Amino acid sequence: MNRRKKDSAKKRKFADFQKEEHEARNKVPNSDKLSLKRIDSATFEVHVKQRRSKEERSALAKAGREDRGKYIPKKAANQKKTGGLSNCQKERKKKMPVVAKREKITKSHLEKKKNNQRAGKQFRGRKA
C-alpha cells in the first residue's frame, strides 16, 4: 500500500514539474516588463533586396544574348542552300504522262488507306 502511495506521489510531482516547465516556456511577458528591456535595433534590420530597374533588367537580358546569332527562320535557312534542288522539288517539277501520274496517286491513296485501317483496329474486345 505504501509503495502505491509513493508511486502516485512521484507521478504527481513529475506532472507538476512538467506543468510548471511548460508554463515557463510559454509565458507571455507583460507590457511593463517589455518596456524595461532594451531592444537592439540591429536585430530587427533585415536586408531587403531591391527590385532592379528596367534598364538593369534589359541590360542583363541583352548580355545573355551576345553569343547567340541573329534569328533566321528554318525555311529561310533552307532556301539559301547551294547545289541544286532537293528530290521533292525535282519530283514536283518532273513532267510525267497523265496515266503514270494517276497510277502513282491511286497507289499512294491505297497505301494510306491500308495504314489507316491497321491503325484503326487497336481495340479488340467488348465495349463496356
Can you summarize this structure?
By secondary structure, this protein is an all-alpha fold. The protein is 60% helix and 0% strand. Among the domains are: 1-31; 85-118, no CATH class.
Question: Can you characterise this structure?
Answer:
Its main location: nucleus. Required for 60S pre-ribosomal subunits export to the cytoplasm. InterPro entries: Sda1. One of its GO terms (cellular component) is nucleolus. Keywords: Nucleus, Protein transport, Ribosome biogenesis, Transport. With about 130 residues, this protein is an all-alpha fold. Among the domains are: about 1-30; about 85-120, no CATH class. Helices cover about 60% and strands about 0% of the residues. It contains six helices and no strands. It has helices at about 1-25, 30-35, 55-65, 75-80, 85-95, 100-120. The longest helix has 24 residues, at about 1-25. It starts with a helix and ends in an 8-residue tail after the last helix.
